[in-house]
Design a protein that fits this description.
heterodimer; A: about 200 residues; alpha+beta; two-stranded antiparallel ribbon; 4 helices; B: mainly alpha; 8 helices; elongated
Chain lengths: ~200, ~180
């Protein structure tokens, strides 16, 4: 079958070809548009109102970790699950070998994670000897895998910023350069942290 | 602020109807409305990032991610697989069961690419925006997905031919032979 035939046959399968849709010029669309424009428009770019981080150049989280000499445990690795050109369904990060009590961290209001950082919300589904696996419930940016595996090899306990991972726990996590970010940019779910994630990555 | 509103209003009018169709091709109508509203909210927040001339595929990409997040959430909460992205788009028997069967043989990524090509009528450079990959990578993936669909179609047709031949043989078996066994 040549591409044109394939295209035509696929077109005939289109389940929405004849489905009525709400017109863009109708009253329902107008109400939806107005309702949307009533919301906070651009959380990433607001600079004056807490809890939005300031935008002037600051020492980034991951640069701070580097200055403290925190050693990377492993490297970022995609694990393609469905063929060589399929999108990954699992992605791995490592946990930084650091003592949360000894860390020097910027206030969370001064944190500005890198635009290249990955950020997601996930639920812990497995805590192994050397890794913690989370099912992703939402990607904020730079990722679309279904699961994230965090390597905890060499760690005395699987803990995030000093807080143990618990089975079934809900977490918000930022990762960059293959490492899970700490100093407040990752942690157990809370409405406050979710607000920061919306601010940083919304 | 007025510029943002003007820009958003223009994009909204351009994408509102296509986004509804995009979502309805992948989820039930009620869920589709929710997903479209959610995606348009993201569009509003990120309207400054909308690429000129490619707002629609950019919005498809946002809607696609909203669908993926919804699928993850729904699967966990209800522990059921329903008609969401990556699953069957419509029950078999709707017009072309062989093609539905061939689509089922593709992985979710290839299936989405051929749908974007045939249903959303996107060119590879627009598919690149939806999938957030380079235009070159998109062109390669579109080519491969089409080839895999054609291959799958051949397999499905061949299986059906064999099955039909088998049914004929059983149908031609003399009654006394079947009764004797």
């Amino acid at each position: 079958m040549n591409p044109e035939e394939l295209h035509d046959r696929l077109r005939r399968l289109d389940p929405a070809a004849d489905a009525p849709v709400d017109p863009a010029t109708g009253p329902r669309a107008a109400a939806l548009m107005e309702q949307i424009m009533q919301t906070q428009p651009e959380p990433v770019n607001v600079t004056s109102t807490p809890p939005t981080p300031a935008r002037r150049p600051r020492r980034a989280l991951f640069a701070a970790l580097g200055a403290l000499g925190v050693a990377a445990v492993g490297a970022f690795a995609f694990v393609a699950m469905r063929g060589d050109d399929a999108e990954p369904t699992s992605v791995s990060f490592s946990l930084a070998a650091s003592d949360p009590l000894m860390q020097m961290c910027l206030p969370i209001s001064d944190q500005q994670p890198s635009p290249e950082a990955s950020a997601f919300r996930g639920t812990v589904v497995d805590i192994g000897a050397e890794s913690v696996t989370l099912d992703v419930t939402k990607w904020y940016q730079n990722g679309d895998a279904d699961q994230v595996v965090i390597s905890t090899a060499g760690m005395p306990i699987a803990a995030l910023d000093g807080v143990d991972f618990v089975q079934g726990g809900d977490y918000l996590i930022t990762a960059g350069d293959g490492q899970v970010g700490v100093c407040g940019v990752s942690g157990p779910y809370s409405a406050d942290l979710e607000g920061w994630f919306d601010t940083w990555y919304g | 602020m007025n510029d943002r509103r003007t820009r958003f209003e223009a994009i909204f009018r351009e994408v509102y109807e296509p986004l509804q169709r995009y979502a309805r091709r992948r989820v039930d109508p009620a869920s589709a409305d929710d997903v479209v509203a959610e995606a348009l909210l993201v569009v509003w927040r990120r309207v400054d990032e909308a690429p000129d001339g490619l707002a629609l595929p950019w919005c498809y990409g946002i809607t696609r991610r909203c669908l993926a997040n919804r699928r993850r959430s729904d699967q966990r909460q209800a522990n059921v697989v329903d008609r969401l992205m990556g699953e069957r788009d419509a029950p078999p028997g709707d017009g072309d069961p062989l093609l539905w069967a061939a689509l089922d043989e593709l992985d979710a990524d290839d299936r989405e690419i051929v749908r974007l090509w045939a249903w959303e009528e996107l060119q590879p450079r627009e598919i690149a925006v939806v999938l957030d990959i380079s235009a070159n990578a998109a062109a390669i993936r579109v080519h491969r997905a089409k080839r895999r669909l054609a291959d799958a179609m051949e397999r499905v047709v061949e299986r059906k031919s064999r099955a039909d031949a088998g049914h004929k043989r059983v149908g031609n078996t003399p009654l006394e032979t079947k009764e004797a066994t």
